[in-house]
Amino acid sequence: MPPTVLIVEDTQSLAMMYQSYLLPTGVNTLVASDGATAIAIINKVQPDLIVLDVMLPDMNGLDILATFDPENCPQVVVLTGHATKEIAIQSIKLGACDFLEKPIEADRFRITVNNALKIKNLKQTVSQYKNKYENGKYFDLIGSSKQMQSVYQIISSASASKATAFITGESGTGKELCARAVHQASNRADKPFVALNCAAIPKDLIESEIFGHLKGAFTGAIANRVGAAGQADGGTLFLDELCEMDINLQSKLLRFIQTGSYQQVGSEKVVKVDVRFVCATNRDPLVEVESGRFREDLYYRLHVIPIELPPLRERGQDIIEIAEALFVKIAKDEGHPYKGMAGGVKQLLMQYSWPGNVRQLENVIRNVLVLHPEAFIDIDMLPALPENSKKAIEPAPMSIQTKPANILIDDLPNTQNDVKALWLAEKEYIERVIKICSSNIPKAASLLDVSPSTLYRKIKSWEENE
C-alpha cells in the first residue's frame, strides 16, 4: 500500500501544486486548508507524512506540531513563507524532520518528501528490531556480540519478505533456532513452522516426508500422509542439512520452489501451497556444487538471504550469556537449585574452543547439573573437556603453520618508512589472492581460510571508504 501524505496548506492553488508535484511518486495525498481539519484527518487517518504550513487561518502550524507525542511523532515537513532561524530551530525541536521555505521547486519538494518517508521506514525497522532484541536475546537466540547483532539485523530486515533464507554454520551453532527466529519475525509467525532434517531420513522416504503420499503408494504406506510441504502451508518449511538431500530429489524440490506446487507420491493431482523456505547446512554449499553433489540451479534459487552463524569460539562474552541461560533452563527442567557460577568456571568456559559449539556447551552444563546438586557451580564440577579441541584456538607450530608462502624477506618492511597501515597491507594481499583466483571470491576465501561473506564485507567496506 502506498504511503499517505497530508498537505496542510490554506492557499488552495499551492495545495494543488504540491499535490501535482507528488503525482509521479505514487503516494496518496490528502489536503487540509486549516488546523482543525488537519487535526481531524490526523486522528482519523494517521498519515505517514505531514507537510505542514506554519501560517494557517485558525492557528499556528507549530501548535499542531507541539501536540504530537515526542516518542511517537509522525514525520513532519514544515513549510513557511516567512522563514527565520528561530522558526526552523523551533520546528526541529518540536519533532519536524525537515524545513522548507516557500517558494519550493518541484524536485526539491519531491526529494524532501521522499527522504522523510525513508526516515519513517527506517525508524519502524529500528523500532521493530529493538522490540524483538532485548537483553542480549532475539527470540530464542542468545548473544550480544557484534556477529550475532548482525545476524539479528539480517533476520529483522528480511522479516517482511518471502525470500528464502539460507543458513550456514558449523554443527551445533543453532541453525534451527535461527530458522525459527526467521519464522517468528515474519508475518507468518502465527502459521506452522515445519522442520525437516534431510540427513536423518532415508533417501527412499524423504520424498514422501516432504510431499506426502497416498495410501498404497509403496510398501508400508498404510494411510494417506500430508507431508511437510502440506503441513507448512501458509507458514515456513525448514530444510535442515539440505546438502544431504539425494541429487535426484533436488530437481523435484527445485520445481516445487519455483511453482509452489507438487504431487504426492502415488498421486497425479497437483497440490499448490504457500510456503516460505528456510534452508541450512553445515557444509560449504559451493564446494558441494563444485563436487556435483548439489545442483547449481537449486543453490542459486535458495541462496537469496545468506545468514552465516559464527562458531561459539568466535563469539566472546556470548559464551557466558548462553551458559547462564542454559544453566537456568536446565536447572528448572531437572529441579536443580542452581544459583550461579564461580569466576573460575566462567574463565574456563571462555578459554575453551567448543568444537561442538552450543550443543556441546549444553551437554556439559546438563552433565554438571545432573551430577552435582550444589547451588553454586565450581570449576572442579566441570567434566574433562577433550584437549585436542583446543587446537582450534592455538597457533600451529611454525614448521607447519605456513606452507610455502612465497613471501620474500625483501617484501617485508625494513625501515619505518616502509611500514604500511595494517588494513592497507591486508587489502593488497587479499586483492592479490582474488586476482590469482581469477576473481573467484569463494575460491579465494577457501585459500585464505575465511568465509566468502568475510571477503564480501571487506570489499564493500573498501569501496565505501574510497
Describe the protein in words.
The chain is α/β, with parallel strands linked by helices and 466 residues long. The protein folds into four domains: 4-128, Response regulator (Rossmann fold, 3-Layer(aba) Sandwich), CATH 3.40.50; 137-308, P-loop containing nucleotide triphosphate hydrolases (Rossmann fold); 319-393, Helicase, Ruva Protein, domain 3, CATH 1.10.8.60; 409-465, Arc Repressor Mutant, subunit A (Orthogonal Bundle). It contains 19 helices and 17 strands. The chain has helices at residues 12-22, 35-45, 61-66, 85-93, 106-132, 146-157, 175-185, 206-211, 228-231, 247-259, 285-290, 296-302, 318-334, 343-351, 357-371, 398-401, 422-436, 441-448, 452-465; strands spanning 4-8, 28-32, 49-53, 75-80, 98-101, 133-134, 137-138, 141-142, 165-168, 193-197, 236-240, 261-263, 270-272, 276-281, 305-308, 340-341, 376-377. A five-stranded parallel sheet has the order 2-1-3-4-5, sandwiched between helices. A five-stranded parallel sheet has the order 10-11-14-9-15. It has a three-stranded antiparallel sheet with strand order 6-7-8. α1 links the parallel β1 and β2. α10 packs across α12. The longest helix has 27 residues, at 106-132. Residues 141-370 form the Sigma-54 factor interaction domain. This is Sigma-54-dependent Fis family transcriptional regulator. The modification 4-aspartylphosphate is found at residue 53. Keywords: ATP-binding, DNA-binding, Nucleotide-binding, Phosphoprotein, Transcription, Transcription regulation. It holds the Pfam family Sigma54_activat.
